[in-house]
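Listing S7. Sequence submitted for prediction.
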Amino acid sequence: MKKKLQIARKRIPPCEPPFWAQGGHFQTILGHLLPSQNIQGDQKEFLIPLENEKENIHSTYVQGSTEIVVYIFHGLGGSSDAGYMHRTASVAQKLGHHVFINNHRGCGKGEGLAREAYHSGRAEDLSAVIRFGREMFPTHRHIAIGFSLSANALLLLAAKVRGEVGPDAGIAVNGPLSLTKTSLKLSSGANKIYDKSFVWELQRYIKKNRMEDFSLVKKIKTLRDFDEVFTAPAGGFKNREHYYESCSSIQYLKNIKIPMVLLSAKDDPFIPFEEYLNHEDHEFLFIHLEEKGGHMGYLTKRGHLNFERWQDLAIGEYLIALSEKDL
């Protein structure tokens, strides 16, 4: 398994930021703001039911021709409309694969459908989507890609925590392996701009889905406080610390028995890259720590002023390697 992933790794050039996108903060912000292509072709909308719940997952399906099914899950405050979601779907589509582009409960076109909130540990929601796909394509190979929050949830699912039906392989991009350490980094220094952005998105999410008396959360300033006041009790946890301890994937990585690529950048402003170290010898984990790239920015230079999306290239190479059934 690792030999084929190592071959794929060698085909991926380093991410070399253009002069105007140096540093993790510029990579993160510009990577989010710069335009992205939308997926092309016919699309079908599915409402995927969640077991023992009244909520549904809203998913967009694009038909392929291969025996590979790819599932894509967004990060905190995102939706299936995010640029990185469409770009990743386009990468899979160009390879001929079937693609499910998924909203977490209450997000995107599923806004207003949720009675409970999603969070970093909702591996069971990812499992529900993959179960749905396996019923449609029982003989295919199933590969999941999780970004940020969903990368952590995907790793939990791969370790068979909070979910039963998982993929055959996966790619976890810029995942917060330790929720405690990530939340602390978010609440310090320049990272407070991301912290406030996440809180604003979550406040909007609660208001749109009418989950709580909005007055309880409208004055919250940090994600740590939000997790204490809302996420933990809403998710059935005793408190913030219980939520973080229960849902941090780092403690479960040893239990993963399917091929998983863990991709992140050393200059990610709020994901501690040190959490990825010491897992290189794991039989099923392939760690790719890029020197530059920020948090899901990965702008690499093309010529003097132009740029390319390095993340799309890397995911494409790893998808090709993970698509082999004898991996």
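Caption to Listing S7: primary sequence and predicted structure tokens for the chain studied. The CA atoms of residues 88 and 222 lie 30 Å apart. Strands lie at 44-49, 56-62, 68-73, 98-102, 141-147, 169-173, 260-265, 285-290, 299-302, 306-309.
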